[in-house]
Amino acid sequence: MLLLRAARAAATVAVGARRKPGLLPVFVAGLSSSSGAPSDRATPYQGGRRRKGQRRGEAKPQPQPLPAQSEVPSKKKSNARSAKDRKARPVEEAQGPPGQEIEFELVKLQPEKPKRVVKWRCATGCGACCKLDKGPEFPTPDEIFSDYPEHLELYKSMIGPDGWCNNYDKTNRTCNIYEDRPFFCRVEPKVFDEFFGVPRSKFDREACSACVDNVKMVYGQDSAELGNFKRIIKEESKKHEESMKEVQLLDT
């Protein structure tokens, strides 16, 4: 029993000596990875635990020395200026050539052109809308009143032999039933919304466009009636724009 304890004690001392670096200095030959023959140089065993992937008898890798302060690679560009230099740099130089800067500023600060105000008004003595048979370039009554059979029947009954409305006075260019005219004869936002799906915000432009097309079809593109209608619309639109400006001034 004593011999067994002494043998264990001796083995413990030997194991402890192997685990502590410097207690058991031995020299082992380095193995070549290609031939397996011992190398000419011998590496002293440093002791201690092996690292992961390190073979028995292989020297512990030495840490690489840190580079000097001047050798540390800089992430900044070599031509980068300090913050003080950048602040002192003129604005024209930082933003490019003066000509290019002015052109950029003009394009950037150029205000959007406001839309021209358009206000519709009926032109007295025109009567182009009273030509009910519009021709092949316009939608047919069946297409317009497809969902309104009662309006379709009334509309067709009003068409005369020459295509004009039976209630239109050609001599005076007036409507004989103007105050009691049918719903579809009225140029109003509600009518345009119900029959054509035009919202109130676009009524004036759509009404003016429809009247221009009617006047061109009935009287011609260079007719006096078309010039008179454009003049009336221009005057009405100018009055409406001035009234809008007055309302804005009162609000402010």
What does this protein look like?
By secondary structure, the chain is mainly α. Helix content is 42%, strand content 6%. The protein has 9 helices and 4 strands. It has helices at 2-19, 83-88, 91-94, 98-109, 141-144, 149-157, 189-196, 203-219, 224-251; strands at 27-31, 38-44, 168-169, 174-175. The strands form 2 sheets. A two-stranded antiparallel ribbon has the order 1-2. Strands 3-4 form a two-stranded antiparallel sheet. Strand 3 (168-169) and strand 4 form a beta hairpin. Helix 8 packs antiparallel against helix 9 (224-251). The longest helix is centred in the last third of the chain and has 28 residues, at 224-251. The protein is elongated. The relative contact order is 0.08.
Task: Report a brief summary of the structure.
By secondary structure, this protein is mainly alpha-helical. Helices cover 42% and strands 6% of the residues.
List keywords for this structure.
two-stranded antiparallel ribbon, mainly alpha, 9 helices, single chain, two-stranded antiparallel sheet, disordered N terminus, 252 residues
